[in-house]
Amino acid sequence: MARPQRTGGHTRARDLPLSFWWLWLAVLVTWTGRFVVPFMTLFLTGDAGLSVSAAGLIVSGYGGGVVVSTLGGGVLSDTVGRKRTLVGSLLLSAGTVVIIPLFGHPAAVALLLFAFGLVNGATQPAITALIADMVPPAHRRTAFAYKYWAVNLGYAIGPVIAGFVADRAFDLLFYGQACVLLVSAAIVLLLVHETHVPERAGRAEHADGGGGLLDVLRDRVFMTFVAAMFVYSVVYVQSTVSLPVAMADEGYTTQQYGLLLTLNGLLLCALQIPSARFMARWHREAVLAGALCVTAVGVGLQGVASSWAVYAVAVTIWTLGEMGGHPAAQSIAADMSTRRARGRYLGAYALAFSTATMVGPLVGGAVSEHLGTAALWFGCGAACLLLAVFLSLTAPARQERLAAEAREASAIGAPEDADRPPGEGGFDPRPAPVDRPWQ
């Protein structure tokens, strides 16, 4: 007999379906082996002897590919299926990353990084759509917290391995990442169920009065949120693009930088789920704005860091902001999507990070080279504070949108929105009961 779903109280691990946990494992494996991109800037400025701005331009090629594939991956998730899109993306990514070290010319590396991003970026909208499909709204916020926990558990392990290997043979990073991508593809192929049966072209887009990619991009409330997340993501990617270069210029080793990433991952692994229960006291819009303020303090502190210990304190602070901000934002985006066009909506949301992956290295490299790294970190802190204000001002529009959709779904008896916890339809930053599900 099927276990009844809980629609109130704290979401337990067993409330999430088994297929979610296999997907969680695939995410963990993938991020444990995410070796190449975080260390690519160091390789290009060190072994290849390129300038910071030139290295940033090359690494931004990966982001350019991801920009295209996040939208394309969202469309494919709706038209081909979430699982097929994810497995295909993982397999093609493995085949692409393994040939990058065979080419030494910067132009060839840039093109291959673009191709890698082009096939790899489709994983994110597919994964997010799978989670949103298989987990009802009442448990969705917790599911995204667990997913983010897997990402950072992998990050806690991966940088130490990558830093150790990169100091000896950088080529091995490419082969290692190809192997873990193949393992992840096997897990999804064999153990994760498809959640979306594709419909014929045209029928899927018009059966409910819309849902095409252009309709998503014209959704002003949703795309305003995406634009805000883009600015935050530009700040966020500096931790893997500008921070390692700034530390190297100050005489720190690759392993010392890797230890900071490990610190970030360990803190998220230890505190992500407990903090989820604590932050359930407040509305997720308030959590998101507060997380941005905390992030501002952390990245700003990097502008005056004079020792590795100060960098460690700064990373600890912005990690606290990260663990609150990302799951809250992702659950907001998932709830604003419709099931029929979920891949497109979440592909557009993933566009915020993918575009930042391309733009971030350019911004970080240019500001660091012409104004200095202190100006970069202070500017990032100011941007986070402004975003907190902007998101607070635009929160009522998003919550009215969710409330309107909930009323419409209730009128037609839609079961999915029946699971939405009370209070998520309107913006109220006051504490809610402690046992409220962290959606």
UniProtKB/TrEMBL annotation:
Bilayer-crossing regions: 21-44, 50-73, 85-103, 109-132, 144-166, 172-192, 221-237, 257-274, 286-302, 308-325, 346-368, 374-393
Boundaries of every Major facilitator superfamily (MFS) profile domain copy: 19-399
Keyword annotations from UniProtKB, A to Z: Cell membrane, Membrane, Transmembrane, Transmembrane helix, Transport
UniProt xrefs under Pfam families: MFS_1 (PF07690)
CDD domains: MFS_MdtH_MDR_like (cd17329)
Keyword Nucleotide-binding recorded: no
Ranges annotated as biased composition (Pro residues): 430-439
Gene Ontology cellular component terms for the protein in this record: plasma membrane
Membrane topology type: Multi-pass membrane protein
PROSITE patterns: MFS (PS50850)
Keyword Acyltransferase (UniProt): no
Subcellular location per the Swiss-Prot or TrEMBL entry: Cell membrane
Region (Disordered): 404-439
GO terms of molecular function: transmembrane transporter activity
Protein name: MFS transporter
Source species: Streptomyces radicis
